[in-house]
Amino acid sequence: MSAKKFFTENKNKILKFCWNFIENLSQEKKREIENDKIYYRRICISIDDQNNYEAYDTSTDIYRPLNMHEIIEMKVYGVERFCDNLFIKNSITRIKTNREYMQIAIAKKNEKNKEYHYKIANKEIKVLKEFKLKLGYQQNIN
Predict the structure, then answer these.
(1) pLDDT tens-place values along the chain, 142 residues long
(2) Which of 28, 32, 42, 50 has the most CB atoms lying inside 10 A of its own CB?
């Protein structure tokens, strides 16, 4: 068996497991199911005509395919926790990016861009703090 075939088979097994998990969630959980796609929180899992599965991060502007490491994390930690970790990771990336743009604006003495990126980063920090507080509260209850 070739490495590529082995990789694809394992990826399909993991994503099929995640697909079934999301599909069997109660109606109270937010999810959307189409014929060949299933959306849940910050991920989308799709299936093509050859029964190959693919997973995407939908919390970014352009849907980004999940790499194999992230797919394995989704299986190991569970879909719920993976979605939380994905949100935190993407938030930190957005904060870092806006910080860099803000530093460039400071170097160029562009006050308008500096304020713009500062506001975006500050807003993202507030959202992340609220999310972590909510997440911590839920963990204490469970």
Answers:
(1) 677 788 788 899 999 999 888 888 876 676 777 888 998 888 999 999 898 999 999 987 789 999 999 999 999 998 989 998 898 899 999 999 999 999 999 999 999 999 999 999 999 999 888 887 776 645 443 3
(2) 42
Tokens at 98, concatenated: 């806006």
* E strand intervals along 6-135: 31-33, 37-40, 43-47, 53-57, 64-65
Residue for token pair 């713009």:
116
Are 124 and 94 within 8 A, CB to CB?
yes
Its pTM stands at 0.77
Question: Hey, what long-range contacts does 52-60 have (CB within 8 A, 24 or more apart)?
Answer: 52/8, 52/12, 53/11, 53/12, 53/15, 53/16, 53/19, 54/15, 55/15, 55/18, 57/86, 57/90, 59/86, 59/87, 59/90, 60/90
